[in-house]
Specification:
By secondary structure, the chain is mainly beta. The chain has a single domain (2-107), classed as Rieske Iron-sulfur Protein (3-layer Sandwich). 0% of the residues lie in helices and 45% in strands. Strands 2-3-4-9 form a 4-stranded antiparallel beta sheet, with no helix packed on it. It binds FE2/S2 (inorganic) cluster.
Amino acid sequence: MSWIRITNTENIPLREGRSVRVGDRDIAIFNLGNRFLAVENRCPHNGGPLAEGIISGKTVVCPLHAWKVCLESGAVKKPQSDACVMTYPVETVGDIICIDIPANACAA
Ligand code: FES
């Protein structure tokens, strides 16, 4: 595991997402107001960019076909499915958002 400094908190507006590239990973970070959550920026349905979706509670609605993905667990909530996306631990250190990237970063 390795914590990577990503960006300043003010770069992700309230209730919006932004995508960042870390190595070979495309990660979507969301500002839920009281915390930030990060998931793989690739919808399990057909690869839609989740960072561009609309936040609804703790889920994001994919901008392509409106699948709902839980930002805490990575599980698809709607439609019913076993599909999920990878989640990443997030910590803010002062105003800096950090994400914990697994050591086997190229295996994803
Ligand atoms: S690609 Fe996300 S719902 Fe289709």
